[in-house]
Amino acid sequence: MHGSILIVDDERGQREILTMILQGEGYAVSEASTVREALTLLDRQEFDLILTDLKMPGQSGLELLAQVMTDDPQQCVIMMTAHGTVDSAVSAMKQGAFDYLEKPLERENLLLTLRRAFERITLLRENRVLQKRVAEIQRISSIIGDHPKMKEVYRIVTKIAPTTSTVLIYGESGTGKELVARAIHDRSPRTAMPFMAINCAAIPETLIESELFGHEKGSFTGANAREIGILEAADGGTVFLDEIGEMNVAMQAKLLRAIQEREIRRVGGKGNIPLDVRIISATNRDLEQEIRKGTFREDLFYRLNVIRINLPPLRERGSDIATLAAFFVAKYREVTGITVEGLSKPALKLLLNYTWPGNVRQLESVIERAVLMTEGTIIQPEDLPGEISNLTVHGGMVPFELPPDGINFEEMEKALIIKAMERADWVIGKAAPILGLTYKTLQYRLDKHGIEKPEKKGR
After folding, report:
1. Is CATH 1.10.150.20 the right assignment for the domain spanning 315-389?
2. Is the full-model pTM beyond 0.90?
3. 349-368 pLDDT, tens per residue?
4. CATH class of the domain defined by 3-126
C-alpha cells in the first residue's frame, strides 16, 4: 500500500475515475463530494494526502485548505483546478498547498506529482524520528574538541541555534563546516524538518538555478518533468549553501531576491512559491576581498553574514588532535570490526607534528587507513601514510643546503607559488594546502608578487 488519499470533488464522474486510477496504483482512497463531508472524514481518520477540487458548490477548496492547515500545518494538500483558475491555485500554494494540477488531469502528471508528494511525506516522517534521536545527544553533533577556539564555536552555535538568523561559516576545506551547520539545525525549532545541503562549487553554472529553485516541464532541454528545487524541498527546514563564494554574480542576485522576498519561482514557472527556510552558508574565501574584486555582491554578503562563525584549521587547535584521533580510531574499529586499541606514542607524536593541510577530514582519512593497515592492536608510525611517517625531527622540513652565494628569497618564494598553482590548475583553494598556507595568506602572496594565471594561447 502506497498511502492513503482523500479525494474531494463535487463531480461524481471525476471522483470515480481518480479512485480507479489511484487504487490501481496501490493507494487507499476515500471520497467526499463537499468540504463538509471531507472535514467529517478528517475528524474520523488521518489521510496522508488530500486531493481537492478548487471550485465546488458551498465551501471551496481554498476554505478546506485553510481549515486543514490550521489543524495540521504539515498535511499534504494538492489542488485540482480548471485552466482559468490557475492564479487561485498559485494563491493556494502560498497558503500551504503542496502543488496544483490543471484539469483535465493527465494520468502521468497526476502520478508523478503524487510520487513527489509522498517522497516529501516520507522525508518528514524520517525527520521526526531523527528529532527524537537528536534530542538524546548532549554534545553538539559530531564536533569534537576542547580548544578555546572550538569552545567559542560551541558557544555561538548554542546561542544562535534557536533563532532564524542567517549564518555564514568561514573555514578551510575539511574543517567541518557542514557539521556546524547541521548542529545549528539540530538544535533549532526546525530540527523535525529537512536539512538539505548543496555544494555551489560542484554544480555547473547552467544547472545551479534549477537545483536551487526547481524547474517546470519543458523549461529547458532535458526538463522532461517538473522538479522541485532544494529550497522548496526544504520548506520549514534549513538549507546549507557550501562554497557560496563560488556562485556566479547573476545567480547571487536571484538568491538575494529569494531571501529578501521569501519566495521563489521555478525555472520556466509563472507563479511564485512562498519560501520558509533558514539559510546557512559557508566559504573558504575572503568574501570581503571578493566584494572589492567585484565577484561577490555586497548586499548578498550582508544578508548572509548576520551571524559569523570562524572555524579554526586543525593546525591551530593542535591540542584537539589526540582527542580526534581517538574518536576516529573508535569509529573505524566499530565500522571495520578490526581490534585496534589506539596509537603508539611515536605515531601520535607524528600526528601532532604534522601540519594537516586537509584538516579534520584528512585526519579521519589517515586514521581509517591506519586501522586497516595495522598488523597489531596498536597503530605504529609505519601504519601512517608516507607524508606523515617520513617526517624528520625537524618537523617535516625538506633538508636544504644554502648555496655559498646565498639565494634570492623573494624569487624562490615566487617560483614555489607558481609551481604549486600550476599543479593545482590555478585553483587557490587547492594550491594553499600544498604550500601549507591558508587561502587568505596565499591570495596575499599572489597579489604581492603580481602572480596571475597565464592567458591561454589563441585568445
Report:
1. no
2. no
3. 999 989 899 999 999 999 99
4. alpha beta
